[in-house]
Amino acid sequence: MSSPAEAATPVQLCFKMNGSCSRTLHPFGVQLTIYVVCAAGVLLTIMGNLLVVISIFHFKILHTPTNFLLLSLALADLLLGLTVLPFSTIRSVESCWYFGDDFCRLHTFLDTVFCLTSIFHLCFISVDRHCAICDPLLYPTKFTIRVACIYIALGWGVPVVYTSIFLYSKRIEEGLGQFLQDMPCIGSCQLLFNKLWGWINFPVFFFPCLIMIGLYIKIFIVATRQAKQISNMNKISKGSQHQTGVAKRERKAAKTLGIAVGIYLFCWLPFTVDTIIDSLLDFITPPVVFDVLIWFAYFNSACNPLIYVFSYRWFRKAVKLILTCQVFSTRTSTIDLYQEELSIVGRANMVGPI
Fold first, then answer.
1. Which of 106, 119, 187, 231 has the fewest other C-beta atoms within 10 Å?
2. Nearest to 301 by CA among 95, 122, 156, 136
């Protein structure tokens, strides 16, 4: 016979039907706190990446191959914040999925596409920085706007095709029936191929990261050697000073993007490793731990704009112009954001190469 306490606290289900998932109940204060934290993270992701998109799109001096890759990366993070994170917030707090199986599949599709797009773009940006630092003389001819557009098309196209095959192909679903024996309960939104999905996604995450790490090790070695050479170039002409400034700018960009890659690995590696271990041990990770890991990975999408704020003076200037609504003036699109002093009237017609 059950105790009165047990009778007073029945198990809450997501839906009033057989096979429904159980719902984790939090005290109101805890639930409100989680909602506020998640909402703040979503808002930071959306607003930060929106500022990056507007900055690079509006200011003509920022229309460079590297910045177009940054623009596409910010767009992926922005769409993640707009289309994925709000529903992930509700799922994490309520521990139930209330939006149906079809939208669950679409949500999983968008989540996977945007996350894979981010890592592909970071990998391509690493290639770009490697060319700029290690082969500066040929860089302008090797990494053009056309090449950047090809990389952007690959960065979006490959994740879309890859994810579509595994989430929307009936033939794949029928051929992998042995992986679907343990169907999730009703009210759960899990990846379709539980055990296989972790093993398939691991090399997609691991090999681009391995490429990025290798490239940035070489970039660090070359940049260190260049820094020593630049320190000995004080007695040079004005034209050479311009070249030195460009070299310093390239090194600063490489350092900043290296930090972005490091933070990406820091945010995503725990979730990726847990996915592999979980598939081997029949998914023993508690739901709370899984939610913490996935939101830790999501947090990476909010980090890049913060990195740009602290690292790029041109981004801080662009944000100031955006927040003060000065971008509505057509003259501001030609401002040279790389100048030490910013004057809209005096520099509106100045456009120089990055």
1. 231
2. 122
